[in-house]
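Entry for MU-OXO-diiron complex. Fields follow.
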Amino acid sequence: MENAVSITEDLYYLGASDRRIALFESAFPVPRGVSYNSYLLKDEKTVLFDTVDAAVAEEFLHNLEGALGGKKLDYLIVHHVEPDHSASFARVLQRYPDTAVIASAKAAVMLKNFFSYEGASVVKEGDVLETGKHRLRFLAAPMVHWPEVLFTYDETAGTLFSADAFGTFGALGGSIFADEVHFERDYLDDARRYYFNIVAKYGVQVQNVLKKAAAFELKTVCPLHGPVWRKDFAWYLQKYDLWSKYLPETQGVALFYASVYGHTQNAAEILASAIAAEGVKNIAVYDVSVTDKSVLLAEAFRYSHVVFLSPTYNNGIFVNMEDFLRDLCAHGYCNRRYALAENGSWAPQAARLMQETLSSLKGMQKIGNSVSVLSAVTQQNAQELKTLAHEIARSFDEQI
Ligand code: FEO
């Protein structure tokens, strides 16, 4: 039985949520599930905006049939060919074979490669589709998050179909609208994690598309994952603006440590307490061997100041810390103040190696001297950590 939800008098939500999925893109844990959104406009012509992942195809097809109410499907606009949005493409065309497919040039090639489909009508930036009352304008949004991505702006209704942009992990339940859930409490952490793990590398391209969107009145924003926005979108837009400029969202310190037998953790805890004693608010401490790397990445981008503390391992950086730093580099990490501490029972190397990695990134400023622990934290180390905490706290004053 269908469960299509009305957004406006002629726009319907046809998506569904997957709460059984463990890893989104086989990489990112989604304990709160994820939604795959699809929308139907019922004008003189009917327009389907994207399809859904195979996991929710049955629900989606029921929703489509129910929302069409016997009308034919005239257009399918493909904003993004990644299979979480296109896996049901062939099934839609099987059921509605007369549907005209609209896509970007790059998407047309991908549709051929994924589905051996070669019938797409290609549109580009600025092209318009009139569907009766509605006038749909296409916007190119390359690398948000694949090169073929297209947005559609409905000039009549003020609705932006924004593909992956403004999406979030987290299933939908009950209301599909951001203004009817507690988005900041229940979705913002997942939205940040989604953004930084999936799109962070393409901040310049996100900024380009935000500039295009700023020219339009946005009454409704319909992303491909997560809630639909009808109110207070400026608040979320401001988050995206910060994120895509690689600017910190929270003035505070995130400490990331790896620890084999607890001594490097001890150093991290002493440093965190000393930073708090200096009056700094917003301190977070993470064990990089325990917390999922998608969370670590999002938190590193969130905070203005970061500290990395690692044992030396096989004459290098401890493996989980090394993985984390590699992930930061791969996602364009930059523009943060950082401090370092290392441990090494006979030949500490980790701080020097971490500094080599971090100093190669744009806009990274090191605070103080690296603290070097030889096995267990000594009185002298504790004093060095307190000195480092003071310098970290002082760097906030300098920033302000
Ligand atoms: Fe939700 Fe890039 O796919």
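NOTE: The first helix runs from residue 57 to 68.
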